[in-house]
Amino acid sequence: MKIRDFKALRFDISKRPYDFSASLGEKGLGDNVRSFLNHLNVESDRVYFMNQTHSDHCVVLDDAHDEEDYFGFRIVPDTDALITAKKGIALVSRISDCTPVLLYDPIKGVQACIHSGWRPTVKKLPQIAIDTMRNRYGSSPKNIYAYIGPCIGRESFEVGKEVSAAWRDAFPFHREVIRYFDKDRDYIDLKLTHIRMLQQMGIPDDHITVNSADTFTDPRYHSYRRDKPDFGSNALISILK
Fold first, then answer.
1. Nearest CA among 241, 207, 215, 214 for reference residue 103
2. Which of 5, 47, 59, 146 is the most buried (most CB within 10 A)?
3. CA torsion angle for 123, 195, 127, 103 (degrees, to 10)?
4. Which GO terms describe its molecular function (predicted)?
5. Rounded Cα–Cα distance for residues 89 and 136 (Å)
6. Is 198 part of a structural domain of the chain?
7. Does residue 202 form part of some domain?
């Protein structure tokens, strides 16, 4: 089975013309959220955004946590991963080139929605989320299914030497995922980096689904690098039914 085969979990990645930018204001953002939930064929008045700070912070919504009103929805401050086992709660990760990751344990009925920018990636946030699922809910990595969504592709993610140095320090498999280009810049494969991280944690290869789209080159998606300064936000939205 793949993660999309489970009827108890509904999720998708938005495409244009959907936009989940705060700049849309209450009506614009609200209309996009409600329309996309309708696309998923689910209803929810409990929609949780993250105040994404490119951290390694992971919040379990089923435990005590801070939250604030956000254009009629809810937002959890200073976090880049949300976890819940409660049904009917929609989790939102906003991305414009960063890597969206969804984890789902059908045995324990728990999901994790992750915003993995390059800093959360080198901080190994997806692995922290798996550890949290294991410690809080008793999840076993062998039972977890994963989805790696559209992000900037390996031919497009040009970085300076300080970023590739952070990759070398963080990942023993760095030679697989860094393409050294010249004295000033390199290219990094974000999707393969996340595949290797998930495999390191014990998630079976056939439990990992990867969306191959490159947000930078694919006009269906918003891209920070391509569209700045007037860039929009894609969203990974997931909900347990």
1. 207
2. 146
3. 130
4. copper ion binding; hydrolase activity; S-methyl-5-thioadenosine phosphorylase activity
5. 18
6. no
7. no
Q: How confident is the model at residue 71, as a pLDDT?
A: 92
* Residue 175 within any structural domain of the chain: no
**What pTM does this model have?**
0.97
Residues 6+ apart with CB under 8 A from 119: 54, 55
Q: For residue 77, give both structure tokens.
A: 């401050």
Instruction: Determine the structural domain holding residue 236 and report its residue range.
Output: 9-151+208-240
* Average of per-residue pLDDT values in the chain: 96
Give the whole-angstrom CA distance, residue 99 versus residue 193. Answer: 10
- CA dist 149 and 145 (Å) reads 13
Helical segments of the chain, H only: 25-39, 118-122, 125-137, 161-170, 174-177, 190-200, 224-227
Cα–Cα dist 101/149, whole Å = 6
Concatenated DSSP letters of 55-101: ---EEETTS----EEETTEEEESS-SEEEE--TTEEEEEEESSSEEE
Residue 171's CB is within 10 A of a number of other CB atoms, namely: 19
